[in-house]
Amino acid sequence: MYGKAFAPEYRGSLGGLSVNASLEEVLETALTRRREAELQGAALESAHAGLAVAEACRRLGRVAEAEAAWKASYRAARRAGDRGAMAWAVWSGGTLARQRGALALAWRWLSLAAELAERGGDVVARGYSLAGLAETGRIQGDYQAVGELHEKLLAEARRRGEARHTVWALEGIAQMHRNTGSYDTALAMFEEAAAIAGGADDARGRAWALRGIADVLSVRGETGRALALLSEAEATCREMRLVSALAYNHKMRGNVFFRAGRYAEAEACYSGALEEFRAMDEPRGAALARLGWVKARARLGRDTAETAADLDELHRTLGGIGLLHARDMVDKARAELGVLAAG
Question: What is the CB-side half-sphere exposure of residue 98 using CA atoms within 13 A?
């Protein structure tokens, strides 16, 4: 039903790059091709190569370089008069904005990308842009607003047999079910995503799916199985240099240890993940890792007043980013730890 996964963001002469290519390989190849295209005055090829540079830098956590690259890609696409390439560049910018916690800006860029893709007749770019909007809404916790869009995109991806997009949609819907307590449904969807990704040779998609499976298993007390799946996913993240995915993997390992009452190990995992998120300027991940760290430290006997002050700060930080669900997590942490708001 599903063909081999491909990476539509690798375009033009870079279209042969594997979805599983290491990010350093992609970056080196794309930088070389962009220089060649610029010397040749090939604006469209420069836009394609610049998009690959932007995406590799984004996934490696090199956000300033990613920002410069997607904007240069857009300018080259505009010179070429290609709305599809313009859409892909703006999609990359919107995805970067979401990664950096600028959710309102992400919504703006991704909406523009969807519009450009529709005007340019690029169905795949439009699908990816709409998927970005759905993911942005999901991260904010506005499940009612984006749930239907997730389901629509899943149906479209299944109809076209697009493995990578099907896996993404399944994982997004599964995450919403997991966050609302529908664990059986979430587990089944994460497992389906892992199976499709495995069959389509989509290592990145499978690594994210394994993280989701591990999360649900951990909630059910299956600590050993959860840790084994995270170790398998971590190997993929390291091999492909998926810096952001690796940091989220380490944060999830902290969650697994915390649920098992292994608070010292949880604290160490959260601390490491926090450093990784800060290094790549990813405030959402950093705030979530810090929340875990605060909870683990509290369980290890940290002063209650210090814990309360940290939770107050996190509540403000997550609210400023616009993460409604995460703010609820802070309130839940207060209740679990018996800590009142410091203010």
Answer: 24
Confirm whether pTM is higher than 0.85: yes
Phi-psi region of 101 (alpha: psi -120 to 50; beta: other; left: phi over 0): left
Name the region of 221 (left: φ>0; alpha: ψ -120 to 50; beta: rest).
left
Largest Cα separation within the chain, whole Å, is 65
Q: How far apart are CA 56 and CA 29, in angstroms?
A: 11
Token readout for 290 is: 């810090």
In this predicted structure, the answer to whether residue 132 has a pLDDT above a threshold of 70 is yes
The sign one gets for the Cα dihedral 247, 252, 257, 259 is positive
Asked if 67 contacts 103 with a C-beta cutoff of 8 angstroms, the reply is: no
Structure-block tokens of residue 323: 């993460």
Encoded tokens for 270: 């959260």
CB contact set of 195 (below 8 Å; sequence gap of 6+):
none
pLDDT in tens, 3-38: 788 888 999 999 999 889 889 999 999 999 999 999
Cα 267 from Cα 103, distance rounded (Å): 28
**Per-domain residue ranges of the chain:** 262-343
Q: Which of 193, 235, 243, 242 is nearest to 213 (CA)?
A: 193
Query: What Rg, from alpha-carbon coordinates, does the chain have?
Result: 20
- Distance CA(246)–CA(225), nearest Å, equals 18
Which residue type sits at 182?
Answer: S
How many Cβ atoms are within 10 Å of 261's Cβ, its own excluded? 10
Buried (b) or exposed (e) across 98-111, using 16+ Cβ within 10 A? bbbbbbebbbebbb
- List of residues 6+ apart from 343 with CB closer than 8 A: 312
DSSP line for 57-117: HHHTT-HHHHHHHHHHHHHHHHHHT-HHHHHHHHHHHHHHHHHTT-HHHHHHHHHHHHHHH
